[in-house]
């Protein structure tokens, strides 16, 4: 199965730039964590994966991986919750985004047949 991954650069400060490749649906979580405009999308690429996680598993992974907004004036919500919301509605929103980023198998185009008589030029020698 093919899905879409995003190559991003996270601008932590003036000198710290972090290049990452993440699932495309992870970009809103990074924006919630590092701030609007701090995550620059370089390109989206198709990658081949055996299986895409379920929205429930992915929501749990994103919550564990990116932690909680617990600083001074923080919300005590995970960054995943800040990006997608809470509860079943959040998992549904994440699932919708994940489904949108899955790509279908590409149709393989057959090469056009060669015109008669124009085969290998070495055959004429």
List the helices and strands in order: EEHEHHHE
Structural domain count: 1
Q: Helix proportion of residues, in percent?
A: 25-40%
End-to-end Cα distance: 47 Å
Structural class designation: alpha+beta
Biggest β-sheet description: 4 strands, antiparallel
Unreliable stretches (pLDDT < 50, length at least 5) are 105-109
Structural Rg: 22 Å
Secondary structure tally, helices? 4
Overall average pLDDT: 86
- Extended strand count: 4
The fraction of residues in strands falls at: 15-25%
Describe the global form: flat
Summary keywords:
125 residues, alpha+beta, 33% helix, flat
Describe this structure in words.
The chain has one domain. With 125 residues, the protein is α+β, with helices and mostly antiparallel strands. Mean pLDDT is 86; it is low at 105-109. Helix 2 crosses helix 4 (87-101). The protein is flat, with a radius of gyration of 22 Å. It has helices at residues 27-34, 55-66, 79-84, 87-101, and strands spanning 2-11, 17-23, 39-48, 102-103. The chain is built from four helices and four strands, in the order E-E-H-E-H-H-H-E. Helices cover 33% and strands 23% of the residues.
């Amino acid at each position: 199965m093919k899905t879409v991954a995003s190559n991003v650069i996270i601008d932590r400060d003036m000198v710290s730039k972090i290049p990452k490749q993440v699932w495309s649906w992870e970009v809103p979580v990074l924006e919630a964590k590092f701030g609007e405009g701090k995550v620059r999308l370089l390109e989206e690429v198709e990658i081949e994966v055996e299986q895409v996680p379920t929205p429930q598993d992915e929501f749990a992974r994103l919550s564990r991986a990116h932690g909680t907004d617990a600083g001074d004036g923080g919300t005590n919500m995970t960054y995943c919750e800040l990006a997608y919301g809470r509860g079943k509605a959040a998992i549904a929103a994440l699932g919708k985004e994940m489904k949108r980023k899955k790509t279908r198998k590409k149709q393989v185009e057959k090469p056009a047949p060669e015109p008669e008589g124009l085969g290998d030029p070495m055959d004429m020698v």
